[in-house]
Amino acid sequence: MPPPSDIVKVAIEWPGANAQLIEMDQKRPLSSIIREVCDGWSLSGSEQFALRYADGPQLYITEQSRGDIKNGTILRLAISPTRAARQLLERIQSHGIDARLEALKELAKLSADPTFAAEFINMEGIGTLARLVESGTHFGEMLAFTLTAFLELMDHGIVSWDLISLSFIKQIAGYVNQPMVDVSILQRSLAILESMVLNSHSLYHRVAQEITVGQLIGHLQVSNQEIQTYAIALINALFLKAPEDRRQEEYTNPLEQHLTEMASSLAQKHLRSIILNHVIRGNRPIKAEMAHQLYVLQVLTFNLLEERMMTKMDPNDQAQRDIIFELRRIAFDGENDPTGTEKRKAMYTKDYKMLGFTNHVNPAMDFTQTPPGMLALDNMLYLAKVHQDTYIRIVLENSSREDKHECPFGRCAIELTRMLCEILQVGELPNEGCNDYHPMFFTHDRAWEEFFCVCIQLLNKTWKEMRATAEDFNKVMQVVREQITRALAMKPSSIDQLKTKLRGLNYSEILRLRQSERMSQDDFQSPPIIELRERIQPEILELIKQQRLNRLCEGSCFRKLGNRRRQEKFWFCRLSLNHKVLHYGDLDESPQGEVPFELLSDKIPVSDIKSVVTGKDCPHMKEKSALKQNKEVLELAFSVLYDPDETLNFVAPNKYEQ
């Protein structure tokens, strides 16, 4: 007799009949078990049947997936995926509209099943769906179900997106470009275009030729946040896949240009203001997926700075040297330079020292280290041109101080630029699941440069408050980093609000915060506290254990990662009240409050759990692609390993709920 671990007790349903309660031997072939079940209901042709889950996504059970069946699972006898695929393929091509609609509705649901999908695709099902779309004869619900099925089938990765025809792309783009189109059709069309761009280099070029920024802007002005999210997701996808030269090009009319010219578009006031006013400052709270897309857009926009950040200055390039000459002219000569060329050159060394460059003779050498490279010089020139009074005040104020207390503007600007690149992670790919966008960066066309201008004034002010000398340079930069990161954590809604937050974080306040944090740590190190801690430690540990168990019994909701279409999908996990079983299952939406055990279809006996691993040791982190495998997700990942060789994989919502 097989050991108990190979036997699972399940119920199997069949319409119009009493359920069969059987002990399923996991060592027996599925075909043998299905034959026995069919015999119990006097059904012939057992090879035409299969088992599916009765609850949740109702997936087909295969030899590969049968190990997921748990005791108490309810299954359903159904027609086999091959038979189902053949029947649906015939029905969606029938002449009866009602029959075709019902078939497409069922197909849209079944297409999420990988077993059914493989059978349907083998029968050239995707080509049939594509032709139905290309014909332009489907509308409303029928078209929505067709697009849903198509997207679900393609998402299995069985068929290459490169096989999609140009006429299909034009038809899908046509739905996006139509002024009045059904919301469900528009949503799926945007999702299909996003998947095309992310999964095919050749389709990226075709989609970019069909869709313009002006056409997508209309979808950002609607009240449906889900449509807004899909529209921004498509912008992000095109931006992410755009060739480097295309990202940096300048074009005159941003509303008519194609999305291959993403850098110019995102820098334009119209698109930015639409996102600011209709999305960020809209009347609806920002959902997690929208927050993620805004974060991705922010990251990709800042990544346009990477080229300049990694470009060294060429000391022999006269055009680049002229920028340094311009910095000197604005600071010391005003609009008119009364001195002759020879006399002016003789003054350069002195002036460059007053400007705070490390190399007084040839300051171009200060910009040969990357990062921040030429980006630092760009920031300095912006300050000098746009905020000229502030620039002149900072330079002249420091040049009139005693040598030991002067704040070297050039050196500070270069180091500050490097610091800001680190804080905002310029050049790094977006983190999957991260929602950390900053509203203030959407409030100004030159948000990066304005951010630098605010921070360089902060640095100058903090230098004075610390009465720093050249030897204190690194200490000042550490304080400034702390001031900036603390202010950003408050999520200021505008550049002006950032200034207000920073004013409240002067050097005295930073010292006070540090002292307060240090005191709270020091208090716990005094002898009476140590003695008390040792005395109550057993009780405290028991309370912690109980609190953690209570939290596990309440359960947590986790977001499913890796969905290319960026739809919200969730699952929930909680510990049974007797602490013996982990219950988990998929949810259609994020729950409000506790999820009953009855809604969680899967479970794991705690006695089967072998260990818990975190970070890069997790199986789902080892499988991640280069794009998704990043530090943040690694820090949030953990897995439960249980017998025989199964895993339950998690990514915590944040570091505090792990």
UniProtKB/TrEMBL annotation:
InterPro entries named among the record's database cross-references: ARM-like, ARM-type_fold, ELMO_ARM, ELMO_dom, ELMO_domain-containing, PH-like_dom_sf, PH_domain
Superkingdom assignment: Eukaryota
Coiled-coil residue windows: none
Gene Ontology BP, a term: cell motility
GO molecular function term, any single one: SH3 domain binding
ELMO domain boundaries: 319-488
Subcellular location: Cytoplasm; Membrane
GO cellular component: cytoplasm; membrane
The keyword Cytoplasm appears for this protein: yes
Pfam families: ELMO_ARM, ELMO_CED12, PH_12
UniProt keyword annotations, A-Z: Apoptosis, Cytoplasm, Membrane, Phagocytosis, Phosphoprotein, SH3-binding
The keyword Secreted is assigned to this record: no
General function of this protein: Involved in cytoskeletal rearrangements required for phagocytosis of apoptotic cells and cell motility. Acts in association with DOCK1 and CRK. Was initially proposed to be required in complex with DOCK1 to activate Rac Rho small GTPases. May enhance the guanine nucleotide exchange factor (GEF) activity of DOCK1.
PANTHER family cross-referenced by the UniProt entry: ENGULFMENT AND CELL MOTILITY (PTHR12771), ENGULFMENT AND CELL MOTILITY PROTEIN 2 (PTHR12771:SF8)
Protein name (database record): Engulfment and cell motility 2
Phylogenetic classification of the source organism: Eukaryota, Metazoa, Chordata, Craniata, Vertebrata
